[in-house]
Amino acid sequence: xxxxxxxxxxxxxxxxxxxxxxxxxxxxxxxxxxxxxxxxxxxxxxxxxxxxxxxxxxxxxxxxxxxxxxxxxxxxxxxxxxxxxxxxxxxxxxxxxxxxxxxxxxxxxxxxxxxxxxxx
Length: 120
Fold this sequence. Notes:
- This protein has 120 residues and is mostly beta strands.
- It has no helices and eleven strands.
- The N and C termini lie far apart (40 Å).
């Protein structure tokens, strides 16, 4: 059993930046692909970004060029650097693994979520 704990969310103005962190209680390398999902009010949860053990990454079209996912296997931590934030990025962000890299399907481990609110 792996527990995932997210942090780093908050209130930010449009154009601002936030860095989310996800710390796992166990080895994320054993989970291979890790990802960040988000769910906005009234919308379905969507995959934002994923990263494999080998460093392959994929992003939702809506965040390409603005968000960067990274990982530190030694610290069992996954990061999501979010720049140029927009109103539509407002959502609860969840860490997840192991993610199906090609399917985008979430794995069995979820964090509790961290709220990101973009507002002026």
